[in-house]
Amino acid sequence: MARIGLTGLGTMGAALAMNIAEKGFPIAVHNRTGSVTDDLMRHAGDLAATMTPTDSLAALAARVDSPRTVIIMVAAGDPVDQVIGGLVPHLDPGDCIVDAGNADFNDTRRRSAALAGKGIAFLGMGVSGGEEGARHGPSIMVGGPQDAWDRIADIVTAIAARYEGEPCAARLGADGAGHFVKTVHNGIEYADMQVLAEVTGLMRADGRAPADLAPVFRDWNDGPLKGYLVEITAEILATSDTDTGKPILDVILDSAGQKGTGRWTVIEALKLGQSATAIEAAVAARAISAQVSTRAAGEAAFPGQSEAPGLDDATLHDAVLAARVLGYGQGFSLLQAASEAFDWSVDLARVAEIWRAGCIIRSALLDDIATAIRDGLPEGQLFLAPSFADTLRATTPALRRTVARATETGQPVPAMSAALSWFDAMRRARGTADLIQAQRDFFGRHGFQRTDRDGKGFHGPWAGPGA
Ligand code: NDP
């Protein structure tokens, strides 16, 4: 009998199943299309001895020790509900289903509640690190009942990435907490990727070839910007297309895909009244990138408004660092807001810690973020933590120069400028919403608070339609 079951042997599921088998946990596996299961067993080598192939969800459930834990790793959305529907008749009260795919945490909450009614526990488990991570050590973010987590914690911590020996896996709260944290991870990933794309765009607008930029990113990966995304950017810039010999970037269509986690981050930020503007700009930038023909028409209609920005690498380095700190900060304050709204008590320092290895945004910054959070964030904000405030004092002048020069020379830098505007707005004790409040009162008698008196519901002396 197997200790655990897994259905969905696509890219991630197959890698996760082999990782689990490799750590010595007997696992029963299943896939909707049976030939995929056969292929996996053929390619599993020695690991096949620890894996039991099954050809139906009933057979899968029958091969797992009771109380059962079955991982689902299928395409997000309806397929997850379909698989849960197919699995439940073969499970008993006390069993547990783990959704290890990406999921909208609202769906995770709905599924948790529905399954709890049947006595079946549900864990929403975010897994980051792509195929390589799933196979050899991902970062794992779990939400759901403590006792269900306790039953599989040994497996999950065994397969997770390690940072200085510590597993990058944790239960972060009830129901949707794990999937929410994974979603925000991806939102931060969107912002970080976009900033790196923007800065590469600025460098290339100076006529520099990708291969010449690779050493710059390699160098950056040796300092405070050290992290997986900077590392792979250097590698990508150094890569040539095998067919044409051109830089690989020059043969890749500049139209970015997205599966939804960035959008979910922004939607939840808006619902919670938070400002994840750098992430939002990154999501919008992908949408704009997909408008290939419109952009071509735009270039034809508005030629000659772009020049070489001519920014030096040290300025761009600091601009990226400032934007990264601000993007992470927005992500962490969104996590804090969600944790309060949904009563999850997420340990944000632990989140930073489990992101230090295995996941796509792993970077040197996360260790410092964990320390800053444990020391207590003023106003719950990373940008006010003493160490990060020092970093921002040193680097935001470069971000400002970069955004200003990019704007002047017609180069788009939406994520960097969103991060900078957020920073500038956040360091104003008195902003410009006095006029917004006056306008709201003028047309709708919404009332305002005064700076010189207590109380609410004051009105201006206007004779507008709302007066
Ligand atoms: P793949 O496309 O490689 O595999 C999809 C799997 O889902 C297949 O096993 C497929 O079965 C199964 N499936 C799809 N629809 C159904 C259905 N209606 N009923 C039963 N099974 C179904 O996807 P990935 O492995 O890349 O992704 C799986 C999950 O992991 C997704 O939620 C994804 O967002 C998430 N994820 C992916 C990452 C990545 O880098 N790829 C990283 C982190 C998370 P069949 O073979 O029969 O078609």
Describe the protein's architecture and organization.
The protein has 467 residues and is of the alpha/beta class. The chain has three domains: 4-175, Rossmann fold; 183-426, Orthogonal Bundle (N-(1-d-carboxylethyl)-l-norvaline Dehydrogenase, domain 2); 435-467, Single alpha-helices involved in coiled-coils or other helix-helix interfaces (Up-down Bundle), CATH 1.20.5. The protein has 19 helices and ten strands. It has helices spanning 11-22, 34-43, 57-62, 78-87, 105-116, 130-136, 146-159, 177-205, 210-220, 228-237, 261-271, 277-289, 292-301, 313-341, 348-354, 365-375, 386-408, 414-426, 433-444; strands spanning 4-7, 27-30, 51-53, 69-72, 96-99, 121-128, 139-143, 162-163, 166-167, 169-173. Strands 3-2-1-4-5-6-7-10 form an eight-stranded mixed beta sheet, sandwiched between helices. Strands 8-9 form a two-stranded antiparallel sheet. Helix 9 packs antiparallel against helix 10 (228-237). It is globular, with a radius of gyration of 25 Å. The termini are far apart. The relative contact order is 0.09. The mean pLDDT is 97. The chain binds NADPH dihydro-nicotinamide-adenine-dinucleotide phosphate. NADPH dihydro-nicotinamide-adenine-dinucleotide phosphate binds at residues 8-13, 31-33, 36, 73-76, 79, 82-83, 101-102, 127-128, 130-131, 259.
